[in-house]
Amino acid sequence: MPERRSLRVGIIAGEVSGDYLGAGLMRELQALEPEIQFEGIGGERMLEQGMTSHHPMESLSVMGLFEVLKHLPGLLRIRADLVQRFLQNPPDVFIGIDAPDFNLGVESRLKAAGIPTVHYVSPTVWAWRQGRVKTIRRAVDLLLSIFPFEVEFFQRHAVPVTFVGHPLADEIPLEPDQIAARQALEIVVEPDGMLVALLPGSRMSEVTKLGPVFLQTARWLQERQPGLVFVIPCATDRIRQAMEEQLAAEPGLDNVHLYRGQSRLCMEASNAVLLASGTATLEAMLYKRPMVAAYRVSGMTAWLARRLVKVPHFAMPNLIAGRHLIEEFAQEQAVPEQLGPAMLRLLEQSETRADLRQAFADMHRQLRLDASRQAALAVHQLLLSARKLPA
Predict the structure, then answer these.
(1) pLDDT in tens, 148-198
(2) What is the rounded CA–CA span in Å between residue 300 and residue 141?
(3) Is the pTM above the cut of 0.85?
(4) pLDDT of 126
(5) CA nearest neighbour of 166 among 376, 368, 377
(6) Can the keyword Transferase be found in this entry's annotation (predicted)?
(7) pLDDT tens-digit profile of 223-275?
(8) Rounded mean pLDDT of the chain?
C-alpha cells in the first residue's frame, strides 16, 4: 500500500475574527492529520499553529467602500499572487474564512482548476444581495455555516452546506457568573438594585450616532429608577474619550462607570443590556442577558437597506429564533422615548427576563457543537472523498 503523503491546505483569513476561527480549525485538523501543512494568509493565532503566511493579514483588513477602493490595486495583486501559487502547486483543499469579497474570487479560480474549496462562515446572502448565491455555488464545494437558520436557504439553492455551530457558543460558559463579573469590574450594586450595560458600538461611527441616544435613555431610566447603575465598555481610548465628552453633556446622569474593553464582563455583570446591533447581540444572548437592540446608519445606507434587505429582523437572537424575541429599533425609532420604555419593561418584568434567559439558554445549546471540531471533520471528509483515501 503506497505511503500517504502529508496533506497541504491553502487557507486565507482576512481579519482578527477569521484568524480566531482559522486557528481553531487548524488545531483540530492537526489532531486528525498530524503531518498536515498550511499556507496562505493568517494572523497571529494561525501563525502559532504553524502556518506559512505569504502576506500580512493586515493587508486584507480594509473596511469601508472608499478605503477598499484606495487599496484595491494592492488587494488584487495579493489575490493574483495567491491564486498563481496555488495553481502552480495545488493544495489538497483550499479554505477561505469569511472575507467573501476576497475569498470567493480565489475559491472560484481554484475550484475551476479542480482544487476542492471550502468557505467558512456563510456570506449574508440570505439577508441581502441574494443573487450572490449563484457565485457561491460556482465557487465552493462545501460551505461551513455557523448559524442554523442559514442551512435551509443554501440547501434550497443547491449549495453544499454543513452547520458546525458557533465558536463563541463553545467559549462562553452555559452558566454566567454575575457576582464574579461585578467583582472583577469592582462595582457594587445594592441587593435589590439593577445594573444596565450600555454598548453603543465598537466603532467611532457607531458611538457617534448611538452614544448620546443611549446616555439620554439612561437618564430617562434613572429618573424612573433612581438606583440604577450603568456600565459602558469602550473598545479604544479614543472611544472612551468620546463617551466621557458625551457623558459631560448629560447633566443629572450619575452612577455611570466607563471601562477600557471588558464588554463581556459588563454584559455578564448586568441585569439587562442596551446595545448596538451586531456581534454584541450574539454575545449578550450567550450570556443570557435580556436586551434591547438599536441600529443607526446614514440616511443613504438606510434607504438602500430598506430596498435590499430581505429579512424581517436585524438582531441576531431574532434571526436565530426565527421570531420577534427581543425588541429592536432602527433609525428614527432608535430614540430615548422608545428605547427607554422597552428597557424599563425588561427591568420591571421579572417573568419576561426569565423567559428570555430560558430562550437564550436553548439557543446557546443549539449553537454549542464544538464548532472547530465539527468544521475540521467536515473538511477532513471532503479531503478523504477528493483523494479517495480510507477514513
Answers:
(1) 988 998 999 999 999 999 999 999 999 999 999 999 999 988 878 899 999
(2) 36
(3) no
(4) 55
(5) 368
(6) yes
(7) 999 989 999 999 889 999 999 999 999 888 989 999 999 999 999 999 999 99
(8) 88
Query: Would you state the cell numbers that stand for residue 11, as one nine-digit string?
Result: 487557507
Could you give the CA distance from residue 53 to residue 7 in angstroms, rounded to a whole number?
A: 17
Cell 500517504, residue located: 4
Q: Which residue has the higher pLDDT, 202 or 338?
A: 338
Decide whether 8-165+369-387 matches 178-367 in CATH topology: yes
Q: Which residues pair with 291 in a beta bridge?
A: 273
* Mean local confidence (pLDDT), 24-35: 95
Q: Which residue has the cell 471532503?
A: 382
Structure confidence by residue, pLDDT tens digits, 81-117: 999 999 999 999 999 998 888 899 999 999 999 999 9
CATH architecture assignment, domain 178-367 = 3-Layer(aba) Sandwich (3.40)
Q: Which pairing describes strands 93-97 and 8-13: parallel, antiparallel, or unpaired? A: parallel
Q: Lay out the sheet containing 8-13: strands in order across.
A: 52-53, 37-41, 8-13, 93-97, 117-120, 142-145, 161-163
C-alpha to C-alpha distance for 296 and 224, rounded to whole angstroms? 26
- Take residue 63 and report the three cell numbers written for it: 473596511
Among the four given CATH numbers 3.40.50.300, 3.40.50.1100, 3.40.50.2000, 3.20.20.70, the one describing domain 8-165+369-387:
3.40.50.2000
Residue 76 CB contacts under 8 Å (≥ 6 apart), including other chains: none
**H/E run at residue 213:** helix 204-224
Report H helices in 225-349. 237-248, 263-269, 279-286, 299-308, 316-321, 336-348
Which cell goes with 298? 446614514
Delimit the domains of the chain by residue range.
Answer: 8-165+369-387, 178-367
